[in-house]
Amino acid sequence: NAGVTQTPKFQVLKTGQSMTLQCAQDMNHNSMYWYRQDPGMGLRLIYYSASEGTTDKGEVPNGYNVSRLNKREFSLRLESAAPSQTSVYFCASSDGQLKRNEQFFGPGTRLTVL
Amino acid sequence: KQEVTQIPAALSVPEGENLVLNCSFTDSAIYNLQWFRQDPGKGLTSLLLIQSSQREQTSGRLNASLDKSSGRSTLYIAASQPGDSATYLCAVSGYSSASKIIFGSGTRLSIRP
Question: Is the dihedral of CA A113, B106, B90, B23 positive or negative?
Answer without folding.
Answer: negative
